[in-house]
UniProtKB/TrEMBL annotation, chains A, B, C, D:
One of its GO terms (cellular component) is cytosol. CDD domains: Aldolase_II (cd00398). The gene is araD. The lineage of its organism: Bacteria, Pseudomonadati, Pseudomonadota, Gammaproteobacteria, Vibrionales. This is L-ribulose-5-phosphate 4-epimerase. It comes from Photobacterium halotolerans. The keyword Metal-binding applies.
Length: 230, 230, 230, 230
């Protein structure tokens, strides 16, 4: 588990989603009730499976000499709210962050988006001054949960937090990284699309269904059928 | 043939046109009546000439243990309609995909475009709900064929499918990859051009003729004359 | 010190902030009263710790056979005005330079910016013809100092000089390079943000405070607490 | 000389200014009256000093088994008109090509531009149908010469040809490549600048003078003084 989470953190860098230490990946083992997360502010070159931090779901450090990511409370709030997710990623990847700063949801404009996100990628409301002043990172998690609302978190495996940056998740740490790459890619495509055609409308719902469902769910036929390709 | 198609798939990645497994290349041997295509959802690192899938023109698997690309039916429709093409590429390369999402043809704005595409790069109409619901991938091929219409497919060696992404083709798998790179490049240039000058008009037809014909056709004088440089 | 400044110059290139020789890093040892800076117009491949130029604070060369950077007088003016800074970087990194050419301050639009800059990144006024004609590089330093005014230079560790390009600084040469990377990154994000939402307003001041102060100052809790992560 | 021109062609690729074979560099030895140029349509991996083509100023091949670049006649027209230039580069580098397609001169917006180009980078008029039909490549050279007019070609070491792409030149093949990189870089910066501030005006002429003249001419003080840093 430490190794998997370390590997996912390194993959985040390999996919060029992080500048310096601006990103973190965690994974959860729900049976054991433990979360593994990247330590705070440590350079990627200095990371190893050994210095990943092991926590319980209340955030108590069980193993590890380093402080966990400063965003740990956000991760924990998401694990508590969404029982199906097994890994979480936070980055400041530039294209998705631009949408966060713009305060706008990323519209579903084509099949690249539809292959992974079953609808637009929502943007949270801004946090209030009170939410910022006390338990900021926990409240960041709560506003994400509030925004996802009654939707299936596995069908919308990422979000952008207003004035901040994206979070994504998946069935494990590796899938969460995968979805972070997708989120950045579709964010960039959406920006370009709107530049070419500012009055474009969202993808035909029938096409959204087709592409999402050919990759996900019980009738999926993309890939070799051995694993869920989400 | 398997080796050539495998090599073309690897080149697609080398030219940075694919994210994860979002792309596929096929080639056809018209004398033997066989098509070779990438397997579905397999990571590029795991690809080899041996796991390319060999099909007949009706899509029956002749050799290979893996499922062929989920877009196989699109490739087959194009091979059936365009007798001169020997290779097909599908990607979600970002700049061309932005034009697809914008639902607009890529105008011929200069000689870079004219060197390879003898006119604008068309954008298909959107598929209907019925076309999406049944035989979606086959219908994607048909709407491409409908859009090319009576034009020479070898003179317009690529297209963008509305709300989806580009397809390109060529005399073999390698040339299809070449044209996929060109399509992405001219898509990016067109977006930038329109940002600088939103009221730009299409390239002078005389210049389009000059550049296309100095590279292609019987009086071509670009290159060393040993092969068609298309 | 020569080694540290050489390393910082090489890091500037590694972070892809320089084209050819368009950048320079210096460091100061305030106790010894010496400044170390890159030589002028020397290719990065030819740089070594040995050919860094050692100067006093009046710009007299103490050690080194090469001429110091043509921007040396700008560096010296900043060291004289801002007693807390230990390193300075100048680049023509493209995204920040675009803001300099546009003549606009980079607004604080999100937490990526707020993690490092405690407010917008200012843009100087244009230099007058007289300031350009005589002691141009020194006057470039003075207009930076004039623009920072009574603000804490360590809380605004960079600026853009109108019609020219960015300067950044930090507690040492390495931190100055770090801030040059941040400046380029937030410049790119700001451009994209404004493209997506031209009417966006600056980040909530409470969020600016939160992010800046969780990384900097006496109650900072980002990182491992061993060093200031600025 | 063959080696120098081969090296310059390889540098063009190293600086990422060429896709496939879309670029060429030549050099001239005015004393011997010979021009060395890249062969037409040969992949960069297959280039060597040995397969560079040696021509006289009328375009007759003196040495080499391969056909010279299809743009040879453009190079020869420039060598004949501008006696100070020693090397020429043609690329379809994307940012400069976007300006060519937009049909607009690249305005001088800051010091990055002013360090190399003593004024805006002109855009030629479009060629007439007659100029395209007969001696197209030669006429491309003539329209460049017409556009430069009475200006010093060494002070404006590059141009964009409308609907086509950039050409640049310099004191030798290496400097021509250097200026091709600068042209692409300032083209990209200008596009970004105008996106941020569409009403920006050209750089203060006093600053243009200062930066151009501190790098070029008899009172230049940038660099180590051993060579002209243009």
């Amino acid at each position: 588990m430490r190794h998997q989470v370390w590997q996912a953190n390194m993959d985040l860098q390999r996919h060029q989603l992080v500048t310096f230490t601006w990103g973190n990946v965690s994974g959860i083992d729900r049976q054991q009730g433990i979360v593994v997360i990247k330590p705070s502010g440590v350079a990627y070159e200095a990371l190893s499976a050994d210095n990943m931090v092991v926590l319980d779901l209340e955030g108590n450090v069980l193993e590890g000499d380093l402080k966990p990511s400063s965003d740990t409370a956000t991760h924990l709030a998401l694990y508590q709210a969404f029982p199906d997710i097994g890994g979480i990623v936070h980055t400041h990847s530039p294209q998705a962050t631009a949408w966060a700063q713009a305060g706008k949801a990323i519209p579903a404009l084509g099949t690249t988006h539809a292959d992974y996100f079953y609808g637009h990628i929502p943007c949270t409301r801004a946090l209030t001054d009170e939410e910022i002043a006390t338990d900021y990172e926990h409240n960041t998690g709560l506003v994400i949960v509030e925004t996802i609302g009654s939707q299936d978190a596995m069908a919308i495996p990422g979000i952008i937090v207003k004035e901040h940056a994206p979070f994504s998740w998946g069935s494990d740490a590796d899938q969460a990284v995968h979805n972070a790459v997708v989120l950045e890619t579709v964010a960039a495509m959406a920006t370009q699309t709107l530049q070419i055609n500012p009055s474009v409308s969202a993808v035909n719902p029938a096409l959204l269904d087709k592409h999402y469902l050919r990759k996900h769910g019980k009738n999926a036929y993309y890939g070799q059928g051995k694993t869920d390709k989400k």
